[in-house]
Amino acid sequence: MSEFSIINTIKLFLLAIILIFASCEDIINADLDKAPSQLVVDAQINDLSTSQTINLSLSAPYFQDGLTPKAQGAEVSIQDNEGHLVVFQETLPGVYQTNNLLGKPSNTYTLTIKYQGETYWSTATMPRKPVVDSIQYDSEINPRKNTEKRYTFYLYAQEPKGKGDNYKSKAFINNQIQLDNSQDMLRAVTLKDDLLVDGNYIKDNPCFRTTKLNSNDAVTIQFMAVDRDVFSFYFQVASQSQGGLFSPPPANINGNIYNSNVLGKKPLGLFIATPINVFEGTIIADKGTLKKK
After folding, report:
1. Is residue 147 domain-shared with residue 10, that is, in the same domain?
2. What is d(CA 119, CA 39) in angstroms, rounded to the nearest whole number?
3. How high is the pLDDT of residue 179?
4. What share of the chain is helix, strand, coil (3-state, %, to 5)?
5. Domain tally for the chain?
6. Residues 12 and 68 in one domain
7. How many angstroms separate the Cα of 202 from the Cα of each of 155, 160, 208?
8. Could you tell me if 41 and 47 are in contact, meaning their C-beta atoms sit under 8 angstroms apart?
9. 1 inside domain
10. Cα–Cα distance, 255 to 41 (Å, whole number)
11. Beta bridge partners of 54
C-alpha cells in the first residue's frame, strides 16, 4: 500500500530518537538490532474490477541492510456482512491476492490473518462513493524557479450531503506514485474532509501540483473516500513527517490491525475499504482534462 510505508515511518521514528539522544552528554546504547519483529499489514480492498491485494511483511531492525522481510505462509481471508467469505492466495512472497472480491459501498469487511500461531483481525466499512465529474489541469512557470513549469490538477465533484465524509487522493506519473515532501507545495497524497464543503459542488479544488511532468508523461489520479480512522492515521503520518530538527519526538501512530490474543505480538499497519474514482491521461498540452477510467 502503500504510499506511506509503515516500515519507513517506524524507522524515521527511531532515527529521531537517536538524534535526540546524541545531543545529550550521557551515552545511551539503544539496542535496535534486538527489537522483536512485528507483522506489518498493508491491506486495501476497493470497488474496482481488479485483483485485490494484501501485502504482509515484518518489521526489521533499524540498521539491518537489505530488503524488508516478507511474511510468507499466512492464511488470509476477508468476510463481508452479507456472509461472503473470500480466501486470498499467496502469489509472491508476502503478497496475497484474489480476483473474487468486488467491494461495495456501505458493506462491512472483516480481515483475518493467521500467521505463526497468531490470529490478527480488522474490520472496515466502505464509505459512500463521491460523484467526481472530472479532473482538469493547467500549467504555469514556477514563480520560484523561472525555468520550471508547474502543473496543477483540479477536482470537480459533487460532495454528498451529510457531514463526516473524508477523502484521500493519490497521484502517479508513469505508474510511479508521487510523494512530495516540500512544505510549500501540495502533497501528491492529499487528505480532505467535508467540514467546509458538505453538500456543495466542488470546483477548481487543487488535488495535485508538481514540477516533475514532461511532455507525453502519463498521469493517473485516484480519488477515494476513506473512513475517519484511516483519515486520522494518514493525517498523523503527514503531520509528523513535516517536523523539523527541533520538533518534539514523533508519537506512536496506531493502525486498525489487532491481535486476537491481547498478550500476543502487536501488529502494525492498516486495513482500508474504499471506493475509488480513477482519472488518467497523457500530458500533451499546457492544459487539459484527465479521462475517467
Report:
1. no
2. 11
3. 65
4. 10, 45, 45
5. 2
6. yes
7. 7, 10, 15
8. no
9. no
10. 9
11. 43, 96
Same domain membership, residue 288 and residue 192:
yes
Q: How far is CA 16 from the centre of its chain?
A: 22
Could you tell me the residue range of the domain that residue 285 belongs to? Answer: 131-226+278-292
Residue 236 CB contacts under 8 Å (≥ 6 apart), including other chains? 253
Q: What is the pLDDT of residues 182-207, one digit of tens each?
A: 433 334 446 666 766 777 888 888 88
DSSP H helices in the chain: 6-22, 228-240
Quote the pTM value: 0.76
Rounded to an integer, what distance in angstroms lies between the CA atom of residue 92 and that of residue 87? 15
Q: 180, exposed or middle or buried, with CB in 10 Å at 0-12, 13-18, 19+?
A: middle
Rg (CA), the chain: 21
Distance separating alpha carbons of residues 105 and 242, to the nearest angstrom? 33
Residue 70: DSSP 8-state: B
Q: How far apart are CA 15 and CA 6, in angstroms?
A: 14
pLDDT digits (tens, 9 = 90+) for 137-152: 999 886 676 778 889 9
